[in-house]
Amino acid sequence: MITVFGSINMDLIATTERLPKPGETVAGNGFATAAGGKGANQALAARRAGRYVHMAGAVGKDAFAAEALALLDDAGTDLSLIKHVDGPTGTALILVGGDGENMIAVVPGANGKVTPADAETAIGRMNEGDILMLQLEVPAAAVERALSAARAKGVTSILNLAPLIPDAPRLGRLADIVIANETEFERLAGQEGMDAAAREAALVRLHVETGQTLIVTLGGDGVIAIRDGAISRAQGLKIEPVDTVGAGDTFCGYFAASLDDGLDFVSALRRAAVAGSLACLKAGAQPSIPLSEEVADRI
């Protein structure tokens, strides 16, 4: 079983020919709303990959709450660990340029009211050998409690080191498996401006220090990882991206689901990389997450 402990948002998405520079206003050419939040995105990805998933987090008592949970509910995700709190549901304001790149501002809302006690409740429902997936869009104290409780119970923890908050390097050391993009990994390693050789050297160094499984996503260049002393690589698909929002979350959810399904590590990386590529072919975070059959066909 997979439990995702994290954020639930409504995404407000505007599309433009290009992203604005600081202080600049550009004309938009489209607008849409979509359920999002890194936690909810990863939970839906794991569910669409075919695994049983609990989502733990919080939504507000507003018009966005039901919409933010609709796709998770439709997919059969267990929502019994989600609490409803006073105030707004978390919101993400997203600009998507004509090349598929994006800019995002996240307003925590109810996500900011997730507590260490909520973490204890979520882990209390888990068993040894289950998988816990976390991100950093809920308070650091709650993430830290979840990680420590998971380790005490023999639950495998996967921490996606995003967004890049000040506590990210410290919290990253508490997880069994860490997933980061290039920028996030540089912060974890304490070294900026890495080329490929420096990144691989840093992976080895951190792995020797911590014993953790470390995974770095590289966008169109696939993924590099280290586990049990061995470096692994995997490629996604060669695509023309429409919208990269949610691609990283799709990778994380599919990776967790693949491990939970018993795939070997390299196969799990490959399946997750292909799923992340497919998520770039549609607009929106959750609407773009592919079904397991689509991923299998492309593999």
TrEMBL record:
<comment type="similarity">
    <text>Belongs to the carbohydrate kinase PfkB family. Ribokinase subfamily.</text>
</comment>
<keyword id="KW-0630">Potassium</keyword>
<feature type="binding site">
    <location>
        <begin position="37"/>
        <end position="41"/>
    </location>
    <ligand>
        <name>substrate</name>
    </ligand>
</feature>
<keyword id="KW-0418">Kinase</keyword>
<feature type="binding site">
    <location>
        <position position="137"/>
    </location>
    <ligand>
        <name>substrate</name>
    </ligand>
</feature>
<keyword id="KW-0119">Carbohydrate metabolism</keyword>
<dbReference type="GO" id="GO:0019303">
    <property type="term" value="P:D-ribose catabolic process"/>
</dbReference>
<keyword id="KW-0067">ATP-binding</keyword>
<feature type="binding site">
    <location>
        <begin position="248"/>
        <end position="249"/>
    </location>
    <ligand>
        <name>ATP</name>
    </ligand>
</feature>
<dbReference type="GO" id="GO:0004747">
    <property type="term" value="F:ribokinase activity"/>
</dbReference>
<feature type="domain" description="Carbohydrate kinase PfkB">
    <location>
        <begin position="2"/>
        <end position="290"/>
    </location>
</feature>
<dbReference type="InterPro" id="IPR011611">
    <property type="entry name" value="PfkB_dom"/>
</dbReference>
<comment type="function">
    <text>Catalyzes the phosphorylation of ribose at O-5 in a reaction requiring ATP and magnesium. The resulting D-ribose-5-phosphate can then be used either for sythesis of nucleotides, histidine, and tryptophan, or as a component of the pentose phosphate pathway.</text>
</comment>
<protein>
    <recommendedName>
        <fullName>Ribokinase</fullName>
        <ecNumber>2.7.1.15</ecNumber>
    </recommendedName>
</protein>
<dbReference type="GO" id="GO:0005524">
    <property type="term" value="F:ATP binding"/>
</dbReference>
<feature type="binding site">
    <location>
        <position position="245"/>
    </location>
    <ligand>
        <name>K(+)</name>
    </ligand>
</feature>
<feature type="binding site">
    <location>
        <begin position="217"/>
        <end position="222"/>
    </location>
    <ligand>
        <name>ATP</name>
    </ligand>
</feature>
<keyword id="KW-0963">Cytoplasm</keyword>
<feature type="binding site">
    <location>
        <position position="181"/>
    </location>
    <ligand>
        <name>ATP</name>
    </ligand>
</feature>
<keyword id="KW-0808">Transferase</keyword>
<feature type="active site" description="Proton acceptor">
    <location>
        <position position="249"/>
    </location>
</feature>
<keyword id="KW-0479">Metal-binding</keyword>
<dbReference type="GO" id="GO:0046872">
    <property type="term" value="F:metal ion binding"/>
</dbReference>
<feature type="binding site">
    <location>
        <position position="279"/>
    </location>
    <ligand>
        <name>K(+)</name>
    </ligand>
</feature>
<feature type="binding site">
    <location>
        <position position="249"/>
    </location>
    <ligand>
        <name>substrate</name>
    </ligand>
</feature>
<feature type="binding site">
    <location>
        <position position="243"/>
    </location>
    <ligand>
        <name>K(+)</name>
    </ligand>
</feature>
<feature type="binding site">
    <location>
        <begin position="9"/>
        <end position="11"/>
    </location>
    <ligand>
        <name>substrate</name>
    </ligand>
</feature>
<comment type="pathway">
    <text>Carbohydrate metabolism; D-ribose degradation; D-ribose 5-phosphate from beta-D-ribopyranose: step 2/2.</text>
</comment>
<keyword id="KW-0547">Nucleotide-binding</keyword>
<dbReference type="InterPro" id="IPR029056">
    <property type="entry name" value="Ribokinase-like"/>
</dbReference>
<comment type="subunit">
    <text>Homodimer.</text>
</comment>
<dbReference type="GO" id="GO:0005829">
    <property type="term" value="C:cytosol"/>
</dbReference>
<feature type="binding site">
    <location>
        <position position="284"/>
    </location>
    <ligand>
        <name>K(+)</name>
    </ligand>
</feature>
<feature type="binding site">
    <location>
        <position position="288"/>
    </location>
    <ligand>
        <name>K(+)</name>
    </ligand>
</feature>
<feature type="binding site">
    <location>
        <position position="282"/>
    </location>
    <ligand>
        <name>K(+)</name>
    </ligand>
</feature>
<dbReference type="Pfam" id="PF00294">
    <property type="entry name" value="PfkB"/>
</dbReference>
<dbReference type="InterPro" id="IPR011877">
    <property type="entry name" value="Ribokinase"/>
</dbReference>
<keyword id="KW-0460">Magnesium</keyword>
<dbReference type="InterPro" id="IPR002139">
    <property type="entry name" value="Ribo/fructo_kinase"/>
</dbReference>
